[in-house]
From TrEMBL:
EC id: 3.1.-.-
Protein name per Swiss-Prot or TrEMBL: Very short patch repair endonuclease
Superkingdom of origin organism: Bacteria
Taxonomic source organism: Lacibacter sediminis
Highest classification ranks of the organism: Bacteria, Pseudomonadati, Bacteroidota, Chitinophagia, Chitinophagales
UniProt KW DNA repair keyword: yes
The keyword Amino-acid biosynthesis appears for this protein: no
Amino acid sequence: MADVHTKEQRRFNMQQIKGKNTKPEMLVRKYLHAQGFRYKLHDKTLPGKPDLVLPKYKTVIFIHGCFWHGHRNCKYFIVPKTRTEWWTDKINKNIANDLKAMKLLKKDGWKIITIWECKLKPVKLQQALTALVKKLS
């Protein structure tokens, strides 16, 4: 199946996808800050560069996009119909990198919390954020 966009349109669309300061990440950050939690952002010294690091609680938080991190059985994770093999390889590498980083963090004694993008949709947002604070307290 051919792509419905030109190469220029596809390139522009892909360039608009951010890796940091995404909407789901900002929702979590604002909520935690309002609850009195303080954190570091994207600590490059830790494996996997966690989105949020709460040193006081020895906890890291990863906020994963369902598509980019291969959230199984999620309606937001759909393998594209074009370049399927390439996308499958890319997503599988992301999953492998996530597992490797989590293994190293656990070995160093870090508590790991992963929040999926789909859990931060308006219907489930408050429930997810309340559960997050309970895990931290």
